[in-house]
Amino acid sequence: MAVRVQEEAFDMGAELAGFAQGRRDTGAVVTFSGLVRDDTGDLRHLEIEHYPGMTTSAIEAIVAEAVERWSLADALVIHRHGRLAPGEPIMMVATAASHRADAFAAAEFLMDYLKSRAPFWKKEVTASGESWVEAKDSDEDALNRW
User: How many CB atoms lie within 10 A of CB 108?
Assistant: First the structure.
């Protein structure tokens, strides 16, 4: 199990290759990578803030819950902070399990948690100004299904 909260960019392909390399204990590896989305065509960049110790501990606890709940062989969460441009990777989740259903369910659970509860604060900077990203009801609804 690994959790990395970092400012540096990461290579999704290299991360997947490293996560899956030498696996003989699983039949499924599921990954999801999130990119900075520009819904309006006006986004200059996204600024993501966090409290280092608190953020990492909170994500480690939810990953440990997912590992236990779905009998995962392994899990990886990478989430970036700092200034990110549209199209840049913002996060990645990888899960490894004996069967695909567990790997998919655990990955979805982790993504829903990261989207709605992980202690990050996001500010959109556009040509017309700055605004903090508000929580969405749909994100809470997705998490509540678990």
Answer: 18
Give CA–CA dist 140/137, Å, rounded: 5
Sheet (strand 74-80) strand order: 2-6, 74-80, 89-97, 28-35
CA 32/CA 12 separation, integer angstroms: 9
Q: What CA–CA distance (Å, rounded) separates 73 from 56?
A: 20
Q: Using an 8 Å Cβ cutoff, are 86 and 38 in contact?
A: yes
Q: Distances from the Cα of 123 to the Cαs of 5, 46, 126, 141, in angstroms?
A: 17, 6, 10, 22
CATH number, position 111: 3.90.1170.40
The helix (H) or strand (E) run that includes residue 79 is strand 74-80
Question: How many structural domains does the chain have?
Answer: 1
Q: Do residues 65 and 95 make contact, with C-beta atoms less than 8 angstroms apart?
A: no
> Residue 125 pairs with which residues in a beta bridge?
45, 130
* pLDDT greater than 90 at residue 140: no
User: Looking at the predicted structure, is the pLDDT value of residue 59 above 90?
Assistant: yes
Structure-token pair, residue 41? 């065509």
Segments forming the whole domain that contains residue 9: 2-144
pLDDT at 25: 87
- Interatomic CA distance for residues 92 and 97, integer angstroms: 17
